[in-house]
Amino acid sequence: xxxxxxxxxxxxxxxxxxxxxxxxxxxxxxxxxxxxxxxxxxxxxxxxxxxxxxxxxxxxxxxxxxxxxxxxxxxxxxxxxxxxxxxxxxxxxxxxxxxxxxxxxxxxxxxxxxxxxxxxxxxxxxxxxxxxxxxxxxxxxxxxxxxxxxxxxxxxxxxxxxxxxxxxxxxxxxxxxxxxxxxxxxxxxxxxxxxxxxxxxxxxxxxxxxxxxxxxxxxxxxxxxxxxxxxxxxxxxxxxx
Length: 241
Description:
Blueprint: E1 12-17, E2 23-27, E3 32-36, E4 42-46, E5 48-49, E6 52-53, E7 60-62, E8 68-72, E9 92-96, E10 102-106, E11 112-117, E12 123-128, E13 135-141, E14 147-155, E15 171-173, E16 179-183, E17 186-190, E18 196-201, E19 206-212, E20 217-222, E21 225-230
């Protein structure tokens, strides 16, 4: 008897809030991005591209003008790129306009994962969690919301070791423009020029981070742990909150 194709990780992954405070979910099992409303209703925002299902939406952010961006690697699929459930031939980064129009803005990354804007939203950072190419790329955001001028921002590969496992994953930007990226053994802090300033070492495979409280506290998802670190900076848009 043949086995039924399965989802490796059927639950939700990346989360963000829209302008009204509703929770936005990357839903891997249903291969869509949806809004969770206060009454518990789930409203799909986008569920496919050119008649095909997404792979497994992973991380999501909003721009100030209401454009939604998300990454779509195959991590939620059993077998990843070889899954019979995979319909798209690429692992992309997508733009969803407020109208619902969905555009693939990046198609050439192997395993796109975390993403973040610079404070002025002129730059889009995208992390690639590929063991053969553990890098963060940066793009110029165009007036129509698409991106151009791909270039290498940071190569995290040399930092990966048996003691510091993990590839570029969730990321956030602080008010000074430094990128805080979950990666090898913790959270890397990288300057706007791509210089590695330091690492918050968790000694765990670290998947995500987010600013909270007054905006200077960084919460970190590290394997089975949730860590909290007080920093000397603030997340973008969170000063005096």
